[in-house]
């Protein structure tokens, strides 16, 4: 059975998390619309690690004032809470944690590591693993309007339609013919519709993010991607790999944007191999 804990961020807000197993902590940061249950397929493969799964604010009951959180604050907020969690884990293991993020969680992991490096605390984490970070290539970002299109559907009262647009464009890369049929078999649908406002805010944050020429991250990084996800995210993974001073890029053939949950054994195997190499 998992244990529960809380980490207190600088703003005084407590971030809840679950801890599964014992060993070196691996902090699992989920992406844009999947709750922390996204990591359930991964957990059985993390034997020998302590899997730490936070409840991202806005993706449960813990966001007190969602309307007060603007898009410019979303990423900063996520980074702050991740760093608070890393600090809370300090001393619980002989080894610092690994940050493993998917999509927006991968961007959060990279930015958290970047901030730790800037503050001279790069030894607070052992490594960063980022599966298809939610970073838009420059040419794509110039025309990105997913947040506006989702917001327009929300303004019309079509919450389900707004979330369908996100699933179609990001999760499925616009390559499914029967969206409703696919959704009927998707375990998180329609519960995830309740998260739509946070997903719009997150998408605005992604659309405004600019990848620097160099990501100053002292910790070694593993960047993962799948060949069956959106082309722009695969391109972004390569761009992130090129901007990191010390990274390895691995592409999973035949795997989509939902790589960690779709191919959990392969994902964890790459994490173990990467950790052993460093």
From TrEMBL:
Top-level taxonomic group: Archaea
Example GO molecular function: hydrolase activity
Any Pfam family matching the protein: Abhydrolase_6
Start and end residues of each AB hydrolase-1 domain: 26-269
Keyword annotations: Hydrolase
Name of the molecule in the record: Alpha/beta hydrolase
Claim: Hydrolase is one of the keywords in the record: yes
């Amino acid at each position: 059975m998992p244990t529960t804990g809380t980490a207190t961020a600088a703003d005084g807000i407590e971030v809840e998390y679950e801890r599964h197993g014992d060993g070196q902590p691996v902090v699992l940061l989920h992406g844009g619309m999947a709750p922390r249950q996204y990591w359930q397929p991964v957990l059985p493969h993390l034997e020998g690690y302590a899997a730490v799964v936070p409840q991202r604010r806005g993706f449960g009951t813990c966001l007190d004032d969602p309307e007060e959180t603007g898009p410019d604050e979303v990423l900063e907020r996520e980074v702050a809470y991740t760093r608070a969690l890393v600090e809370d884990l300090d001393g619980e293991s002989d080894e610092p944690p690994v940050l493993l993020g998917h999509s927006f969680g991968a961007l959060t992991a990279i930015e958290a590591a970047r901030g730790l490096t800037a503050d001279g605390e790069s030894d607070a984490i052992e490594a960063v693993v980022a599966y298809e970070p939610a970073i838009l290539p420059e040419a794509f970002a110039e025309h990105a309007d997913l947040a506006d299109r989702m917001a327009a559907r929300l303004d019309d009262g079509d919450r389900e339609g707004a979330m369908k647009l996100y699933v179609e464009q990001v999760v499925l890369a616009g390559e499914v013919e029967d969206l409703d049929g696919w959704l009927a078999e998707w375990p998180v649908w329609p519960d995830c519709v309740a998260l739509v406002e946070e997903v719009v805010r997150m998408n605005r944050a992604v659309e405004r993010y600019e990848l620097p020429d160099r990501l100053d991250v002292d910790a070694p990084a593993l960047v993962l991607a799948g060949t069956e996800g959106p082309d722009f995210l695969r391109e972004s993974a390569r761009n992130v790999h090129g901007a990191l001073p010390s990274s390895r890029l691995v592409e999973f053939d035949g795997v989509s944007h939902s790589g960690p949950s779709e191919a959990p054994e392969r994902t964890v195997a790459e994490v173990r191999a990467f950790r052993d190499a460093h």
